[in-house]
Design goal:
Layout: H1 3-12, H2 14-36, H3 41-48, H4 52-59, H5 67-76, H6 89-92
């Protein structure tokens, strides 16, 4: 964990920092899947029936998507929505 994150964990708590890391991984996965599908943020938003600003905020890590939004995005991106407590190895380095 970076020095900043260690100090921040001392202020906000380790659970909060872990939550932020996990949300960052989700944001990176959505952005990666969108790019792999060849979609712009606007195209993804239109197909998922959500505002483009929501896609942008999710990908930037500014907001956490609601479950309904995750389901909509996963359908458009043709990816499974799985909650199993593990983190894909491709993105595990993003949370260390």
């Amino acid at each position: 964990m970076s020095d900043f994150l260690q100090k921040y964990a001392g202020v906000r708590g380790k659970d909060h920092v872990q939550k932020l890391k996990t949300e960052g991984v989700i944001a990176a996965q959505i952005k990666s899947a969108r790019k792999q599908a060849g979609l712009s943020q606007q195209q993804l938003a239109d197909q998922a029936g959500i505002p483009k600003s929501t896609v942008g905020r999710i990908e930037a890590g500014i907001t956490s998507p609601k479950v309904d939004t995750l389901f909509r995005l996963s359908r458009v991106l043709n990816t499974q929505f799985i909650i199993d407590g593990t983190i894909n190895d491709d993105f595990s380095s993003a949370i260390k």
